[in-house]
Each structure stands twice: as structure tokens, then as C-alpha cells.
Design a protein that fits this description.
Elements (H helix, E strand, L loop, with lengths): L13 H11 L5 E2 L15 H4 L17 H12 L10 E4 L2 H12 L5 E6 L5 H7 L3 E9 L3 E3 L1 H7 L4 E7 L11 H14 L2 E5 L25 E6 H4 L8 E6 L2 H18 L4 H36 L5 E2 L7 E5 L6 H12 L1 E2 L1 E2 L10 E5 L4 H15 L1
Helix pairs in contact: 1-11, 3-10, 4-5, 4-9, 10-12
Length: about 375
Amino acid sequence: MFSSRIQWNSRQNRLTQLLAAKRSAGAEILDLTESNPTRAGLAYSSEILRAFDDPRMLVYKPEPAGALEAREAVAAYYAARGLDVQPGQILLTASTSEAYAYLFKLLADSGSEVLAPRPSYPLFELLAGLEAVEVRQYPLVYHGGWSIDMDALREAVSSRTKAVVVVNPNNPTGSFVKRQELRTLCQICEARGIALISDEVFSDYAFAPDPERIASMTTVQNCLAFSLSGLSKVAGLPQMKLGWIAVSGPAKLRSSALERLEWIADTYLSVGSPVQCAAPRLMASGETAQRQIRSRTTSNLALLCEALAGSPAGMLAVEGGWYATVQLPRIRSDEEWALELLARRNVLAQPGFFYDFDAEALLVLSLLTRPEPFQEGIVQLLAMLK
């Protein structure tokens, strides 16, 4: 009766079942997976509330690409980072998930393919499936740091490939695309007539500078490219539901893409007027949240590195983002480690297979976690290892 696009396995995994049982029994869980900034103990600026005291919010004025003032605020965000992105290159969406949906509609037909990285956040298959598009993965390889396996990516490109997705920095590896990698990606996309989609929601959260790192693909000129971000990470405001697509590349292709994206957006008109009116002030307040998030993730990362030193566990290199990946002894799978940690120590961590890591045994921890439960969770992890 129902579409095959939503024939997903709704059965709960073992970790979810155990967590539900623990909480039902009243156990206090040390949650090392918390990635919701509004529940991370941040102090938000009062300017956020004042941003919605605006009579323009009572007027419905639909604009498919988004209100000019809101797009100018996004352009100013890029300008502050040394990037020249004009408001006419920007289209607003309700989220990066919706941005992906728009782009899959724009670029792909039923049965087309998009390439996405492995490991990465387990969202692309769901979003692509809803558009009747298939995902084909290309690997990131670890050698003391992460890089794209370009040979494997080239081999993955087929006549059905419409786009290559990169996550910069990747979630959860925290690895940025480097300059040579971007040159190769652009060469592949230009030669095969496919688009480049760059998810840059964590790009403001690098742990250290690196001249070889690409902060944004809004600079791409020789192939059609789409850079995605939004208030969720830029200002720590996921509940405001404002994202965007910045389009770059050859002028003719860029113009055609923007025209078609406006047609798609005009069909939905999903971005609320209040958040568009408030956007300039919300964007301006974002630095307050960013400073706190950078301080939190940096201090938790330092604590983790120090705690793991000399232990049977280690940490994979991370350049940015909100996550760290811990390598545990391969005496059991990462799922079994996560289950044992929750069962015996009431500590919740995500097993690596959630993100399609090829190796065992990995746990992914959120560096956004409040300091006290994060520290205690690491203490309990090390106690279990002993």
C-alpha cells in the first residue's frame, strides 16, 4: 500500500532497547552523545528574543529564494570569513536536510546516484531514498589523519552519478577537505558533468589552523558547486529552522541552477517569515554561541586526550567539528563495547557502525557534552577497560 521509499527497518537496535530499559528503571545516564546545543548548557544572548519583536512578521510576503535581508545576512557571514558570496547566490531553506532534498530534486532523476563519504552521518541514504535516488559510498581512509580515497571515488562514478557529496569537516571524523583534494574533486566533477555538494555546517569549529584546509567550497569556479549550512550550527539554534544553499561555479550553470531551485522552493515556501525577519540579528548573535561551543569542544577534547594517554584506548586524529572517535581494544565489536558500557556503567556512547566505519572497535563521543558528565563518563569508560 505504501511507497517503497519508506520501507525502512523500524526495529529498534539493541543499544536503543537497552537505553529505554535503563531509563524506564530510573537509571541516571551519562549521555556522551548529546549534540543538541540548546541542551548543552550554553548561555544564549537575550538579543535572540528581541530579534522577534518585529511587526514585519505579521505580513506574509513569499519570496522563493528567501527575503533579501536574510540572504544579505548570510552573505555577511561569509564576508566575515573572507569569502565573496553575493545574496543572489544564496537560496534559503528550512534546514540542511531540506537543502539536500531540493538539490536531489534539482540534479537527479529516479534511479540516479549520488556519491557520499564513508564513514559519515547516517542521513544521506534516508534523504536520497525519499527522492528515489540511490547513494553510492566512497571511502575516507585513515593513516594518522583522514583523506579521500580518490581512486575509489573515481571508480564509483558511473553514468548515473549526478553529484558528489562531501562533508567539510566530516561528521564524525572531523576531517577537512584539503586543497589538493578539492582540485581533484573539481576535475572529476567538471570532466563528468556532475555537481559538488559540500555540507559545511561544522566549518566554524576547527581546533587549529591549517593552510592546506578548505574552509568552504563557495570559492569553486570550474564545476557547479553547492555549499550548505544553517543556524543550527552557525548560531547553535537548530529550533529556528533556517538553512541555506550557496551556489558557485561557472556563471551559466550557476544561473540555471538558481532559477530551477527557485521553482522548487516556490512549490514549498517552507521558510517561516519570522525567522527570516530575525535572521540578521540571529546571525549576529551566533558568535556568542560559537565561542562557548569552541571552548567546550576544545576543553573536552583536551580532557579526553589526557585521560586516554597510557590507557588501552586511543583517539583518532580530529581537526574540527563536535565529535571525537575513540579506538578501543578489538577484543569485541564496537556495538558490544557500547552495550557493555551502558549496561555496566550507565554511560551512553555511539558505536562506530552507526557511521559506517569499516574498522572495529570505535566509539563516537560528542565533545559538546557538558563538562561534568563528560569527565565522569570518561572515568567510567577507563574503569571498565581496567
